[in-house]
Write a structure and sequence with these properties.
Layout: H1 4-20, H2 24-27, H3 34-42, H4 47-69, H5 76-106, H6 112-121
Helix pairs in contact: 1-5, 3-4, 4-5
Length: about 120
């Protein structure tokens, strides 16, 4: 059974990713919630939830590398590493976008992308 806090966390992380990009939660300090989010996900043992957890773990590692190297891209070798991290982040974003609706629905929640599209469909 999900608590209100669990629901808020799931919706918050989904919103951060869908609204700000999978790396957007770095800039919004949503990373403070990452371990709490992963702990919540690991309470379930479904393939879908484990897929989402893996995406967030991988994007965290890529995001750390991305931000670590962003000020040294004037060095060609560093720029190459930086670009690899950037591409990986984009790939993880695509992966999350593909599973977001099913993931949120698995918790009985609506994903932010659907909520956002519905706002425009009703106007």
């Amino acid at each position: 059974m999900l608590t209100e806090k669990d629901i808020e966390l799931l919706e918050y992380m989904d919103y951060q990713v869908m609204n700000n990009g999978i790396d957007g939660w770095f800039g919004n300090r949503a990373y403070d919630k990452m371990f709490e989010f992963l702990e919540l996900l690991h309470k379930r043992n479904s393939e879908l939830v484990q897929t989402v957890a893996a995406i967030f773990i991988k994007v965290t590692v890529s995001g750390l590398g991305y931000y670590q190297h962003q000020h040294s891209i004037f060095i060609p070798e560093i720029k190459e590493i930086y670009n690899e991290y950037k591409e990986a982040i984009e790939e993880y974003s695509n992966q999350y976008n593909q599973v977001a609706k099913d993931f949120m629905n698995s918790y009985g929640l609506e994903d932010w992308g659907t909520k956002f599209r519905e706002q425009f469909d009703t106007k």
